[in-house]
Write a structure and sequence with these properties.
The chain folds into 3 domains: 255 residues, 2-Layer Sandwich (BirA Bifunctional Protein, domain 2); 52 residues, no CATH class; 95 residues, 3-Layer(aba) Sandwich (Rossmann fold). It is built from 17 helices and 16 strands. An 8-stranded mixed β-sheet has the order 1-5-6-11-10-9-7-8. Strands 13-12-14-15-16 form a 5-stranded mixed β-sheet, with helices on both faces. A 3-stranded antiparallel β-sheet has the order 2-4-3. It is elongated and about 90 Å long. The chain binds adenosine monophosphate. Adenosine monophosphate (AMP) binds next to strand 6, strand 10, strand 11 and helix 13.
Length: 428
């Protein structure tokens, strides 16, 4: 089918997905847990725009990264300014931090964000063109304990959700002062092996040789097997910091592995970097659930004062795919389902339901004119905890029938008995 014909069809853009119930219930559950955990660590939410000027991402993520080179959704707006759908959250967080002079107002800033990101990648399971991330950023702390705290936060979050087979990888890519030394060592190792590298990596030798370590092409993966370790090329500062991180991780009893080949796709990282992978999942090469690291130079490079910073992000889609449990089990069931017979009874239920909602009960009304049997079937399907039935008889004597769907017991009660009876069943 031609591209034009594609556009005429009523379908979502390739790599961009709808999240429907009950899957969305799983997402909500993850989001609620993450928010509560982030807030429990002192992070507060920021909301950042989905669009930014393109130059922001070019300057922060780096010109020679895959994201900037070939994955950004960039276009001219009506004022002919080049704008980009955000491919990640850190760049905007740093922009907001500087734009609002937050560094002047507080010595330490902890933020979290959530929302859609956009990268024009090749879609496959666990990799999409619109995907959702939740992430944290901490500004103003240089001490290694915060690195360990963030790594522990990410690991604990996944483990507490019931995900098993987690692999926590940590590494240090050193500061800007260490980079030239390692780059030179890596280049003198890779240059003689140039012929066995893929086309992209041959180009990376010039633009960004560290990225070769991350290439999944078989020839490249083989070629880097004996590559020098970045950890052997750290200056004293970076080495001591990294020792501080691993020591704190041991103190926290976080299971982790030092992986000197670990590199990340964005250029702004300095020092500690980390990833948490779900190795027992069926996500294949897309098994990195979340990752992050330090970006101690970025705030200064963007025109601000020298400010150490560290953050991570995890992807919602991959996490939802990995999280055990059928999506239905995350649905929030109604506490009371109203079933009625006839228009007058329906109206009475409508009013009663409104009253109960005002008192905090979760209620669902059927509304449609169908048989009582169909309504009970629906209540069953929704896993409603109780059903209130109002038929002709109940209408006549201002009573109603309350059915406990778990025990199957049902009783005719007066209307003013409803709230205490419901409380007994629902709140024990
Ligand atoms: P990054 O921003 O590249 O460090 O990625 C952090 C996390 O976001 C990854 O571990 C994934 O869980 C998720 N992620 C990144 N890119 C994608 C994508 N194209 N599709 C789905 N999830 C993604």
């Amino acid at each position: 089918m031609s591209r034009d014909a594609d556009e005429g069809r009523l379908q979502a853009i390739k790599g961009m997905n709808d999240v429907l119930p009950p899957e969305s219930a799983k997402w909500n559950y993850i989001e609620r847990r993450a928010r509560s955990l982030f807030e429990g660590h002192g992070y507060r939410e920021i909301r950042i725009p989905i669009l930014e000027y393109t130059s922001l991402f070019v300057r922060t993520i780096g010109e020679a990264t895959d994201v900037v080179e070939k994955e950004m959704y960039t276009f001219l707006d009506r004022d002919k300014r080049s704008i980009t759908l955000r491919p990640e959250g850190t760049a905007s967080a740093v922009r907001a931090y500087l734009e609002h002079s937050v560094h002047v107002k507080e010595p330490v800033t902890r933020w979290y964000y959530s929302g859609p990101m956009f990268r024009h990648e090749r879609p496959q399971k666990g990799r999409y063109r619109q995907f959702y991330q939740m992430g944290v950023e901490a500004f103003g702390v240089a001490e290694p304990t915060i690195d360990a705290e963030q790594i522990a936060l990410l690991q604990t979050f996944f483990a507490d959700l019931g995900i098993t087979g987690l692999d926590v990888l940590v590494n240090s890519v050193g500061g800007p002062e260490d980079r030239p030394l390692y780059r030179a060592a890596l280049l003198s190792y890779l240059e003689p092996r140039r012929a066995s590298l893929c086309e992209d990596c041959q180009r990376r030798l010039v633009t960004n040789p560290l990225r070769v370590l991350d290439c999944k092409v078989e020839g490249c993966a083989r070629a880097i097997q004996g590559a020098p370790s970045v950890l052997d090329h750290l200056g004293q500062g970076a080495r001591e910091h990294f020792e501080g991180v691993t020591e704190a991780l041991k103190e926290l009893e976080v299971p982790f592995r030092v992986e000197p080949r670990l590199v990340r796709g964005l250029d702004y990282y300095t020092g500690t970097i980390f990833e948490v992978r779900a190795i027992a999942s069926d996500l294949g090469a897309q098994n990195t659930l979340g990752g992050g690291g330090r970006y101690d130079s970025l705030v200064r490079e963007m025109g601000g004062p020298s400010t150490p910073a560290i953050g991570f992000a995890f992807g919602m889609e991959r996490l939802a795919l990995t999280l055990p449990g059928e999506p239905e089990t995350f649905d929030v069931a109604p506490e009371v389902f109203f079933a009625s017979h006839g228009e007058a009874a329906r109206l009475r239920c409508l009013k009663l339901a409104q009253k109960l909602r005002a008192r905090g009960f979760r209620i669902e009304l059927w509304h449609r004119t169908t048989s009582m049997k169909a309504q009970m079937k629906r209540a069953d399907k929704l896993l409603a905890r109780t059903v209130v039935v109002v038929g002709d008889e109940e209408l006549a004597d201002q009573h109603l029938v309350l059915r406990d769907m778990k025990s199957g017991e049902q009783r005719r009660i007066a209307e003013d008995e409803l709230v205490p009876e419901l409380k007994k069943i629902l709140r024990g």
